[in-house]
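Objective 1b. Sequence-to-structure analysis of Pantothenate synthetase.
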Amino acid sequence: MKTRNGYARGALTVHSDPAALTAVTRALRGAGRKIVLVPTMGALHDGHRELIRHARKVPGAVVPVVSIFVNPLQFGPNEDLTRYPRPLEADLEACREEGVELVLTPQVEHMYPPGSQTRIVAGGLGADLEGASRPGHFDGVLTVVAKLFHIVGPDVALFGEKDYQQLALIKRMVLDLDFGVSVVGVPTVREPDGLARSSRNVYLSAEDRERALLLSRALRAGAAVSAYGADAVLERAREVLAGLPVEYLELRDAETLGAPVPGARARLLVAARVGTTRLIDNVPVQL
Ligand code: PAF
């Protein structure tokens, strides 16, 4: 049944105008529905589908919402903004197949109208790890996520653990700035051979894809020797990565991403260049 507000229960409705979507989600929330958001930059793969499946399983009368927006603010000047894949029709078909009810596809001018200048600043953690080689990246991520939270008004928002630092920073922002949103991390979806699913995997040649497997292999090998302590974990992972241009390989506390605490949950994180593509991955480690 299609409502006057641009929503049809059980079917997909696409909104490009953020204000129109806000009106719909507000009305639905008022009617007791739970708004669950999966923010994406499109090029949807199995990792995104898994996020949507998790979204649909959130208890309550859920309205699954996906945003598709390639956010220019989170790309550096020499990054892949212009060549980033934008297969909108295939993305909408994936959303339809997964039972998404609302999709937001704003234009850049909708999100950043002329004169836009206010930004969220990620702080110290935002300049570490990914932030060290991608200055300003997390300010861009947090700014767009804050805007999406305001536009969609979700009760719950889901993010992949593949971008673990991003997830930690979004949780921090929600606490620091009192967003009443429950942020949930979903485990990384992997190819059968271990490669973490990523929209950037399409850039890998057959040869690069083989070398890319070193990331997940190194992480698994490191995590397997966690009983011997942090140094052993890092040494083992480093051995597997030998020959690959690694940007960082770090073992951090799973909550704060500060120094790992013996006995606490930790996270082993890696970033490396494979051919022209920069890949990241991480796994949990119990020290
Ligand atoms: O993880 C992503 O795809 C993006 O960083 C996000 C969270 C959609 C913000 O643009």
